[in-house]
Design brief:
alpha/beta, Beta Polymerase, domain 2, 5-stranded mixed β-sheet, two-stranded parallel sheet, 7 strands, elongated
Length: 151
């Protein structure tokens, strides 16, 4: 399946979602409540076979957060970016994709550590860069630290 065929497949099978063409990869925007279901379908469908999560990250779009999942098919050699928006800044929570790809464990630990986003059904969500006593989440745009932030 080439890039155009993938785009057509996504348009037919995910017509209720926003599909954009970026410079490198197609981007599929889905509601956060459906992320696990959509990614599971993309992984298990033999037409797409997205068998690898190679990046998961967050962006603070203040006031919302954007989670970005980069997935690839080693069989077909195509890539896809899947994005969700988390609007609840005070209690940002989303389903973990660890049940689909174990690689998500450390990505989600880092996102939690830097942004404070909680992942349900994560095996052991923890801080991996900062101490447990650290107050706040340094990659949030509203993070305040008078000693470390140059203004």
């Amino acid at each position: 399946m080439n890039k155009d065929e993938l785009k057509n497949y996504l348009g037919q099978n995910f017509s209720g979602y926003s599909l954009k063409e970026s410079f490198d990869f197609p981007e599929l925007h889905v509601p956060k409540e459906e992320i696990l279901e959509v990614l599971k379908q993309l992984k298990e469908d033999q037409a797409t076979a997205f068998d690898s999560l190679y990046c998961e990250t967050a962006i603070d779009r203040n006031p919302a957060f954007e989670l970005v999942y980069h997935i690839t098919s080693t069989r077909y050699r195509h890539d896809l970016v899947v994005k969700i928006t988390i609007d609840d800044r005070e209690n940002p929570v989303v389903e973990s994709v660890y049940p689909l790809w174990m690689a998500a464990e450390l990505y989600e630990d880092e996102i939690y550590d830097m942004f404070g986003i909680q992942f349900t059904n994560h095996p052991k969500l923890r801080r991996i860069m900062l101490t447990d006593e650290w107050v706040g989440y340094p990659l949030r745009k509203d993070y305040q630290d008078e000693y470390m932030i140059v203004k």
